[in-house]
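subagent[fold] <- orchestrator: predict structure for attached chain, return tokens only, no commentary.
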Amino acid sequence: MSKKAISKKDNGKQAATVAGNAADAGQAPAAEAQGAPVKKDKINNKFYEEQLARLQIELVKLQEWIKHAGLKVVVVFEGRDAAGKGGVIKRITQVLNPRVCRVVALATPTERETTQWYFQRYVPHLPAAGEMVLFDRSWYNRAGVERVMGFCSDEDYREFLRSCPEFERMLVRSGIILIKYWFSVSDEEQERRFQGRIVDPTKRWKLSPMDLESRKRWMEYSKAKDEMFAHTDIKQAPWYVVDADVKKRARLNCIQHLLSVIPYEDLSPEPIELPPRQDAVGYVRPPISDQTFVPKKY
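subagent[fold] -> orchestrator:
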């Protein structure tokens, strides 16, 4: 069994803005290599598919290491509506075992949950040893939508800003690896994606009345995000900002960064050989007429 140590490539706060560097390593334009701003242009599809396939293989290796080492991993995905959080989560989970990596996307709190300690409804979803949990939005709802839309009191909000850093430090002290991503998208790009959802019947469900209201309160959400960062961008669990104006770049950059902040080893098994199938001696298959088949419409 070969083992290949994967070193930690992130260098603290310098990785806070992930904008098309690690995923494009060796194939980036000269301007990018020299540190020039990354253009908001589309990424080559062939290159994207190749890099995504490579990164997904590494995700499988990470999964096996999480199981082997008994790691407890929490990844928080936050950001603007239509920033592409769901697309990244789908590409991560696409190749992983749902028993190891699961997604938590909680609905509106029930009447009973609104009377609980605020973090209580999230605690049952935290991972046990050998698990990774992806929060598609999280306890940061209080610092964002609840604050802007008036769903919590000023005291509730202030208490969240005080207690959230302590809650996260407790998680880290307990042995949980906590990684937090904020997906940043420009006003113009968000508008374009919203318009696309309006005309696409398969995406229209993504536009809730709350999403439409958020468009009218762009500045309020920006101020709430800045205040949230000021209180919760802590050393033990810093925020990592993903430039999400180009979806495919954001996916590659986020996955590459996730792989870089969790050191893991390659536990890939030796090549597998299938054993010969048992002979069907003495077995008689029931008549096909006894079974109900799905109609062949295609």
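orchestrator: received. Logging for downstream: Strands lie at 17-18, 72-79, 101-104, 131-136, 176-184, 239-243. The domain at 16-25+41-110+118-268 is CATH 3.40.50.300 (Rossmann fold).
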